[in-house]
Specification:
By secondary structure, this protein is an alpha/beta fold. It contains eleven helices and 21 strands. Strands 18-17-16-19-20-21 form a six-stranded mixed β-sheet, with helices on both faces.
């Protein structure tokens, strides 16, 4: 971010480099008179006290007929007025810039904000106070006091921001406060540029395990050769505009009576759908240690892990929304198979998970409708609290999936730790019935308690996936 302003007079363009739009004084434009009135609104407590004392002394001098007291009153009155006018009329051309490193951080990690102020005028500035606006979740509002900046000089400062909660947080605008040497008046001007800090969920490293229903090769880029043994084994297709004529398969052309070309090798990549249950009714509690944040972090970790293993990955929520939006390669990110594409896909999924929030939905039917299209590959679901109907819907999702792993919230355990256990909480028997229903449908079910870690549960999915008759519990 880079912007410029005349502080505190009329604004001017920024210095060299990419510039933000020139800043305007706070409030609506009211001409010179309006600007001067706003300047008098910046009188400090000292300035107002001098002004009030001067007026009082002038009034007393008039009543008592004391000309000496009148001179004192005039001095006390004129000093803050002169300081305000001079400060308002001074034109310090100052450019400000902000650099955020890095612009995307995991939750509970720090980023550093670098601020630079350049004096692009021919006059030195007085003492400056910088203040940057940041959301309260990132920490206290940073303030810096800068000594006078010589003509053409600059000052650099930096501060750190940290958030335990994911989201997108605006930084700025940067505010510049100037005061006169006597401390009678302070004027504040704002730069126009802003930056956005994206706090994504924490991604935990997962071990490469073999999951139930997974095809051989653990998601590596597998290619099915459709034309490897010569002309006789070629699988042709109809000619399309732009096809290379050297690929024309003349024998098939003669057989079908239309121009046919040899089909190139077609990559057949494994796919994985990560289902995230975002229903507010299925998750209770708030904060970085809540079960919903555990599920979001788990979905991010699994999505990134599967992308690194060569899978095409799609994020699906209970509302039926998918990331990336349908229209790509079957709606699956990273399905092209190159490393750069997988990295961009991971960033896209993490950006979406950075702002995902609770939904008002009451069921998982919409997610089931999306999964009915078939060819979904593996399904990894992060589920909140379920009732019998929800468990039945999830069980039917397994019919279209090549493999299915469910991380099921242990609601009684989370409720006991969070202090919101009550009569309405489901007991352990209901949870066991839901787990058995899912296992009977072919799901590998992993119960998630408040003390469980995703890497440990993920490693256990291989062992328990091979033993469907064994209860999956950490």
């Amino acid at each position: 971010m880079r912007g410029g302003t005349d502080a505190p007079g009329p604004t001017a363009a920024a210095g060299p480099g990419p510039a933000a739009a020139p800043d305007a004084p706070d409030g609506p434009a009211q001409g010179a008179g309006g600007g001067l009135r706003r300047a008098f609104g910046g009188l400090t407590t000292r300035g107002r006290s001098f002004l009030a004392a001067g007026l009082a002394a002038g009034g007393c001098a008039y009543v008592l007929g004391q000309p000496e007291l009148l001179r004192v009153g005039l001095l006390l009155t004129v000093l803050p007025v002169v300081c305000t006018v001079v400060l308002h009329r001074s034109r310090h051309r100052v450019a400000g810039s902000r650099r955020l490193v890095p612009p995307r951080v995991p939750a509970m990690s720090e980023a550093r904000v670098h601020l630079r102020v350049d004096n692009v005028s021919r006059l030195p500035t007085g003492m400056l106070m910088l203040q940057d606006r940041v959301p309260y979740v990132l920490g206290p509002r940073p303030r810096f006091v800068l000594d006078r900046v010589e003509p053409g000089g600059y000052r650099e400062v930096s501060y750190r921001v940290r958030s335990d909660l994911r989201g997108r947080y605006p930084l700025g605008p940067l505010q510049l406060r100037l005061s006169d040497p006597f401390g009678m008046c302070e004027l504040t001007r704002s730069f126009s540029g802003q930056e956005t800090l994206t706090v994504v969920p924490r991604v935990q490293p997962l071990a490469p395990v073999r999951l139930s229903g997974e095809a051989a090769g653990h998601g590596d880029s597998r290619t099915r050769a459709l034309a490897l043994a010569g002309e006789d084994d070629a699988i042709p297709r109809g000619y399309r505009h732009g096809d290379d004529l050297r690929r024309v398969h003349w024998r098939s052309t003669a057989r079908y009576g239309e121009l046919m070309v040899r089909r190139e090798e077609q990559p057949q990549r494994s796919r994985c759908t990560v289902l995230l249950d975002t229903r507010a009714a299925a998750h209770r509690g708030a904060g970085p240690d809540s079960p919903f944040e555990w599920a979001v972090s788990g979905a991010a970790s699994v999505a990134v892990h599967m992308l690194r293993c060569g899978y095409g990955v799609r994020l699906l929520t209970d509302t039926g929304d998918t990331v990336p939006a349908p229209g790509g390669t079957g709606g699956f990110a990273g399905a092209t198979g190159d490393g750069a594409g997988a990295g961009l896909a991971a960033d896209l999924l993490l950006d979406a998970l950075a702002v995902v929030d609770h939904s008002a939905g009451e069921g998982l039917v919409r997610a089931q409708d999306v999964l009915r299209s078939g060819n979904e590959g593996m399904v990894v679901a992060f589920l909140g609290a379920l009732d019998e109907e929800d468990a039945s819907v999830v069980a039917r999702m397994r019919q279209r999936a090549g493999g299915a792993v469910a991380f099921l919230l242990d609601e009684p355990a989370w409720a006991a730790r969070g202090g919101w256990a009550g009569e309405e909480d489901r007991d352990g028997d209901a949870l066991d019935r839901q787990r058995r229903m899912l296992r009977d449908a072919g799901w590998t079910v992993l119960r998630v308690g408040p003390e469980d870690s995703l890497p440990g549960l993920w490693s256990g999915a291989d062992r328990f996936g091979a033993r469907q008759d064994t209860e999956v519990a950490p």
